[in-house]
Amino acid sequence: MTNTVVAVDGPAGSGKSSVSKAAAKRLGFAFLDTGAAYRALAWHVLDSNADPEQATEVISSLAGFDYAIGTDPDGYAVHVAGTDVTDSIREPRVSAAVSAVARVPEVRNHLTALFRSIIRDSDKAGIIVEGRDITTVVAPDATARILLTASEEARMSRRSAELVTESASDVAIALQKRDRADSRVVDFMTAADGVVTVDSTHLNFDETVDAVLDVIRTSQET
Ligand code: CDP
What we know:
By secondary structure, this protein is an alpha/beta fold.
């Protein structure tokens, strides 16, 4: 039974995944990347030759979605029906399909229930869960609730530095398109009541991890 639940939300390129993973390592906590589950479902929809834009086809794919993700920040891997999809879920074709899959209410309900059971079953002292709706929907009662933001410019340049095989302008266009589609479903750009905003625009990686750790420590004291 996990004691401390840390919810981290934010847009693409804000550093949510890498910062949350590093903070989890420092604290000896588990780590859950919820975006990986939405990506894995999008991968599965494409792999089944279903149309991600058709909600009925996406809902049908949900029935055969055999998903497994680790919560160890040191050795995290994503599997769909035994196939390791850790790298393939980052491919541009999956990024382009994921928002359509994530806007289907049945998908969100199914995955939210899955995330809650992973949080409940974690046996570490705490778990850091990151995504778009963790502070508001998945774990609104979390010990610490953080919105990790950064200016659009900073987010684009970080993401294009990560995706070296694509041009910076392709990455920026794809990211803006995905942010626009995602923000129609979940508001991850403004902090809900009680959520602490950490703006990483002018912070380097280590400073951002420290800022997140500070919020977690403060929340554990109160
Ligand atoms: O890392 P990045 O911000 O690029 O995206 P991600 O966290 O891997 O999430 C991929 C996609 O999953 C997002 O673009 C959303 O469409 C969806 N998602 C969501 O709807 N709710 C979440 N809690 C997490 C991700």
